[in-house]
Amino acid sequence: MAGKSIDRLRRTARRRAGRRQQHGGSKTRRSKGPDRIQWITLIAASLPGIAALGALLFTWMQVGQASKELQIAEQGHITGRFNAAIGNLGSESLDIRLGGIYALQRIMQDSDRDQPAVVSVLAAFAQRHAGSSTKSLKEPLDEVPDAHKPSADVTAAIATLARRRPDRDRGAVINLSRTDLRGLRLPGEAPIELPGADLDAADLRHADLSGVFDLRARRTVDLHKASLAYANLGSAFLAGANLSGAQLWAARLTQAELTDANLRGADMTCGRFPLDPADEEGFSDCVDLTFAYLEGADLRNTKLSHANLSDALLNGADLRGADLAYANLTNADFRGAKLTGAKLKGTKRTGARGLPPER
Q: Please, are residues 318 and 336 in contact by the beta-carbon 8 Å criterion?
């Protein structure tokens, strides 16, 4: 009996263990089912986002490629315009040449990278079509201001250069050296700039250059041996400019900025001789440096006889050997200036400072 009872208990225990295993397996199967459904649902929900991301990436690549193609097309278009404008400059018709100049002006405004080339082309055009100062300087000075003046296309080319943005030049130089620019007058009243212009030995007699060299970039101007008789340089920025040996007979330099300029050997005498010191009308033909800024300027051996230097600032200027005979020095400031060997005969000195005692 005891053995049968034990066998019965064992069978009962096995049945219970089997039920527990079956119950646990069904729970595991029931728990795995929802997990798989959740993963499938998550993946299905993510598919549109992944597709959208892929489409966005593809669109970005297409836009980049289109942008590159557009840039290439634009450069090709500008190159075509540039070539057409250059062709127009060689025309025998003035109107067509003017059209070529204004086309280059537009290209210069539209394309930073093409400005240096446009500057060089327009400067070369002006230099060639204006003629050489080597020939013009052999002609006598005409007292009539408009007797000689550059042609309309040369004036337009220089005006275009003067109204460009100098910060885009990238080293390009406006080479107008040895050019006949007598009577040059730029149209309009817009700000004019010719920074870094090379006007070495240029003929600028009777030219109106007031304010032309006003300069933010502070690059100096080369006017070495330039002829500027009767030229208007009022309020021009010429700080540090090279005016050595320049002819400035009767030039107007009222309020001009000439600080640290090189005027060594410049001729700033009157426009006509002989000149009687009592001849008030004759003095109107003398150089006008009223209120000019000449601090630190090199004025050694400069001819300034009869010049009007009233209220001019010449602090620290080098005037050794300069001829200031009969000059008007009223209220001029010469403090710190070097005046060894300077000729001061007959000068008007009322209110002048820094001059040696009058003998």
A: no
Amino acid code (one letter) for 298 = D
Separation between Cα atoms, residue 54 and residue 74, nearest integer Å: 30
Residue recorded with tokens 């278009």: 77
**Max CA separation in the chain (angstroms):** 165
CA distance 66 to 61: 9
**Residue 251 to residue 136: CA distance in whole angstroms:** 19
Q: Model confidence over 64-123: pLDDT tens digits?
A: 666 666 666 666 677 888 889 999 999 999 999 999 999 999 999 888 888 999 999 999
Q: Which residues pair with 323 in a beta bridge?
A: 303, 343
- What DSSP line would sit under 126-179, residue for residue? HHHHH-BHHHHTTSPPPSSGGGS---HHHHHHHHHHHTS-GGG-TT---B-TTB
CA 52 remoteness from chain centre: 48
Over its C-alpha atoms, the chain yields an Rg (Å, rounded) of 42
Angle at 164 between CA 160 and CA 168, to 5 degrees: 140
- Rounded Cα distance between 279 and 51, Å, is 95
